[in-house]
Amino acid sequence: MIDLGLQKHAAAALKSLGNVAELDVVDVGCGEGANARAFAAAGAHVTGVDPFIEPMDWTAEGSGRYRLLVGRADALPLADRFADLVLFIFSLHHVPADKLAIALAEARRVLKPTGRLFVAEPLAQGPNHYVSVPFHDETVVRAAARAALDAYADPYFGSHEQISYADRRDYDSFDVYAKRMIANRRFNGYSEEAVLAPEVRRRFDEIVATGAPFDQPVRIDLFSEPRAART
Which DSSP letter does residue 229 get? Predict the structure, then answer.
């Protein structure tokens, strides 16, 4: 497995994928569009899809462009063979377990025969995960996403490459950590009170005392040569 070391999400994706100029890219679970903008700045034509956003028409960014559409991973509002690249960056585990197979089938549907599927998922391990468990334990949903890739992606692509990196997480204090986690509530199911619970602060202080970094380990699965779903 290739290890890219410390990276931010967009940088890790672009290093893994190489030149994306002029490619039609679909960013599934795009959130506010940060990764879509980064890919557009690198020259891609990016369609971000998310159920919780305001739609946006095509907008220039760097040498490329991006737009945002309201939609779900299991019902992408796009034509067959539309995309050169489909991205799930920290979003596959947010798809309900009973929709994962459909979502991955949708990714294959919109990919061109030469297309690639890029999935970056946080691992349920490390200090950052340990601190967040009391208010946002994603162990089960991350395992479900992993199992879905094994069952519904790997068999339907001709090539599968695995890459790792660590997402840099710097928190000067618990207050900084809590502010960032609270800002993420829109796309998650926890409350501000849960983030500020004494057990979360205790775990944070415990990690600080050890001197361990909060960097989040991430695994990338890069699939290419999509095949039709088997019946």
Answer: P
Domain chopping of the chain, boundaries: 2-124+137-168+217-226
Tens digit of each residue's pLDDT (9 = 90 or more) over 44-77:
999 999 999 999 999 999 999 999 999 999 999 9
Question: 3-state DSSP call for residue 147?
Answer: helix
pLDDT digits (tens, 9 = 90+) for 125-134: 999 999 999 9
The string over 44-57, giving b where at least 16 C-beta atoms fall within 10 Å of a residue's C-beta and e elsewhere, is: bbbbbbbeebeeee
> Which residues lie closer than 8 Å to 132 by C-beta, 6 or more apart?
138, 181, 200
CATH architecture of 2-124+137-168+217-226: 3-Layer(aba) Sandwich (3.40)
pLDDT of residue 146: 97
